[in-house]
Design goal:
Mean pLDDT: 81
Shape: elongated
Distance between the termini: 7 Å
Number of helices: 2
Helix content: 25-40%
Number of strands: 2
Order of helices and strands: HEEH
Radius of gyration: 20 Å
Strand order of the largest sheet: 1-2
């Protein structure tokens, strides 16, 4: 959310005597799903074997988004937005995050 949007919401809440809440999703990026057919590989974490018995470098196939992936935030957004719309929320046209 842009700082100007947050200030506007805070001002409106104060003017109308409303309280504001925020949500903090623990491990939010881990809650998304990769798109159908999307295949992502990464290097193994430190401490794992980096070569197989044949001497070739090994990689790991990712089955869920993880922190550090370029796609992780977008995958989480695609999981969260339909749920918010089902609960009656609408996306702000001036600050479409």
């Amino acid at each position: 959310m842009r700082a100007t949007s947050l200030r506007t919401l805070a001002a409106l809440a104060a003017k109308r005597g409303l309280s504001m809440r925020r949500w903090d999703f623990v491990a939010a990026y881990l809650q998304g799903d990769l798109e159908a057919g999307e295949v992502v590989y990464c290097h193994p974490p430190p401490g794992y074997e980096i070569t197989g018995p044949d001497g070739r470098t090994r990689v790991c196939r990712i089955v869920k988004p993880v922190y550090g992936m370029a796609q992780a935030g977008r995958r989480w957004q695609r999981s969260l937005f339909p749920w918010l719309r089902d609960w009656g929320f609408t996306q702000c046209a001036s600050d479409p995050c």
